[in-house]
Amino acid sequence: MAAVCAAFASRQLARSARNRLPQISRRGFLSTPFLTSTEPSTSSVDSPDTKSGPKVSFRPPPVKRGSLASGSIFADGEDFPKITTGGRTPKRRSEAAAEAEAQDGEAQTTIVDLSERDTASLERSLNPHPNRRARWQRKMIIRTIHRRGRLTRKEKIMQSERELSSKSHWFKTSVKKLGPLARQIAGKNIDEAILQMRYSKKKAARDVKAFLEQAKNEAIVSRGMGLGQAEAQAAATETAEGEAQVEVTAVATADAASPVTLTLKDGKRLVVTDPTSIYIAQAWVGRGPFGREASPRGRGNTHILRPPYTSISVILKEEKTRIREWQEREQKDIRRRKAKVWRQLPDRPLTMRNQYYAW
């Protein structure tokens, strides 16, 4: 063992004492400056453009400035002066040109009075099925004659009360997610329902809130709903021009200020201060079409997703409708209770009378 260690140590000493040759890498040996210094010159006359700096291997391409072609859609005549060779810049139109264009537009868009229009050309769009329309009109005339001009209960209610049916666009959500929101707002005042959707944690509540605001505006503009307090305030602020005006104003303010306490179908009590305020009578959801979306998966596979779309529909009514329904329920309950009252000796006419005893 000692002999082996001595031989290994002597070998290391011999290597350290040996003169080492300088190591030159292959890349450095074959580099361009080294070859240039070693290769003989091929030309007898040195070129004056020879530079001593390093050689640039890549230069960016020169920038080319373009210009508009003769038939370009962006070349709008000679009104735009050539400021640079690269293209044109817009310039403000003169007042004379603007006035001329306005006059030409007015001449082209002349509005014809409705009485002067040709009804024959509009007949196809206004009355696409003339035979069906004639049959329907005949049916309605016969119905009024049979009833002798008397209106049904449903027609009287439709003439005296206002309502609006509205349906939303397709929301990108499912029926299970939109159904609880519809049940939450059903039966509530429109302003309270909008407030509920504003502070709801549901994602679809934002779309429902925007839809309720749109439905409320449509009911106010197209049906005139929810304007009782505004009309009462306007009547109260107007100057009185006689006893009749004063009495009308007093009645309007009294009706607007007198609250009504009613009982709903579920047993809850509700205080109505404005009979013309809007509430949501019904709210339901409807299933819509299914979309198609790609879902990239592993190993080059792609799944097709079918996201559902759902809509929500509401029926808006005024509080006077709820008051009428409450009064009808109360009257029906009174009649039902009176029918159950038992009298020991009812006052009835005598029947089956004869000359013989009945015992």
UniProtKB/TrEMBL annotation:
UniProt cross-references to Pfam families, sorted A to Z: Ribosomal_L22 (PF00237)
Single annotated GO MF: structural constituent of ribosome
Signal peptide: none
Annotated stretches, region: Disordered: 29-128
Gene3D superfamilies the UniProt entry points to: Ribosomal protein L22/L17
Keywords from the named record: Ribonucleoprotein, Ribosomal protein
Polar residues: compositionally biased ranges: 33-47
Taxonomic superkingdom: Eukaryota
Entry coiled-coil feature ranges: none
Cellular component GO terms held in the UniProt record: large ribosomal subunit
GO BP: translation
Keyword Repeat applies: no
Family listed: Belongs to the universal ribosomal protein uL22 family.
Protein's name according to its UniProt entry: Mitochondrial large ribosomal subunit
